[in-house]
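Please annotate the following for my students:
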Amino acid sequence: MIKVKKKLKIKKPKFKKVGFITVLILLMDLVVIAGLVVINTNKFKAFWIPTAMTTKSHKYLAYTLYDEDLVWKIMSENYIEQSTEEANLDEIVIGKISEKTHYSNKYEKELFTKDEGNDVYKTIRIIEPNYKGWLIGVYDPADVELAVSSKLGRAGQNVSTLVKNNGGLVGINGGGFEDLDGWGNGSIPYGAIIKNGELIWQHSGGSGGLIGFTKDHKMWLTYKDPKEAIAEGMVDAVDFGPFLIVNGKTSKIHGDGGWGIAPRSIIAQRKDGVVLILIIEGRLPGYSTGASMNDVIDILLRYKAYNAANLDGGASSTMSIEGKLWNRPSAGGEYGGRTVSNAWIVTNKNNKPAKAPVKSNYQ
């Protein structure tokens, strides 16, 4: 009798269908794990902590992720050694721009190739991989002056209003102001303000030195007392910083300088007197992250800046051309930009042709 072996049936394991909630939880776990890996890298720490600590109302973001000791350590590794030299104004020789025929590089040629119908200023678009901005070249430094809020001590005004009220063409925000919890309206400026050779405001909290222009229209960066500076020829000035270039020499930047990546406002002057006004847009994901101090120094050196200083940045960084908001501020754009205490504006004292550019980045 032949026995027939029965085939053993192997039971296949049954898999339950994975639900949507389970998948979502797994994905969230992966995101958290990836986030923990990222925030513990030295590169991210060096980016996140200085960027948060240089904001006026979001310093808590640094302490949310890291303890106080680490924040202090990172900030102590990222700082700026400013030049202690006094700006040598004898090196600034205001020339006749119309006679310039030789250019040292393509950027200088770009600067002196005037916009059609405009002999007052040149508008240059700045586009880099991580940020965007605008550079204004002002051919005659006599056209640059300080505009101050007409409500000083009570409220600020946006840059476009300061430009319009003072007969200007172009403007950029100037010094800083009290901004408790991000709600400052520009009413209480930090430091000193000099206008038309008079000290019109002085308050604690100045973060650098005097940034201003003399009666000879030379940009002067100094740590002198405001009254002493006035006695030596300072006409208009705000109190801010840091100084980035003095007598052609750049400040020494350790790490990112402790100022993080952010929107920037800068004013500078070349040896031939041409004034450079630079604004960098930032805190706009997918469009423009912002720039470090090293980034703006690189731009300024392309255009041969001889003296340069940082102005109030962040959400206050605002540029106006012909009464229109020209850049994309990180906040307050729907209101024409934040209200500020003062602005550096470009006028047209000699009534030169000054046809405005037609394309605004913000509109």
In short: The chain has two domains: 20-77, 80-346. The two ends are 97 Å apart (CA to CA). The first strand starts at residue 79 and ends at 81.
